[in-house]
Request: fold
Amino acid sequence: MLADVLVWVMQRRVVLADRAERLRKELPEVDAEVARLEAAEVVFGQFVDAERSGKADAPAMAEEFERVTTSPGAGGLLLVPHREDGMDQGALPSDYQAIMKIMAAADSRPEPAVTHGPPTGVGDSMR
Reply:
């Protein structure tokens, strides 16, 4: 009988240790989901409050959104398209085309970019 109790205790310990390990591995995923839901809850609450106060569609926000999303490179838009077979310089923005023309006319030896900055209008100062 004592041996049966010992076997039961050992089996129970092995099962619980396995469960604990699985839960430890699952915990970071659960924590991340909780954090995402908490953030969504805050954002949704802000939206509801803005709707109630009539500020959700504020003209200033619409103007700022327009400014931010229509500027070059805004919202993750590509400034330069992905290269494809048969693509020519005409697919590049005009300032990139100017750089390509200057570099094509330059000697074949390496030169610092600062040498070609002024003709492109870029200059040699940090932005």
Remarks:
- The mean pLDDT is 82.
- DSSP finds four helices and no strands in the chain.
- The CA atoms of residues 56 and 110 lie 54 Å apart.
- Residues 2-53 form the longest helix (52 residues).
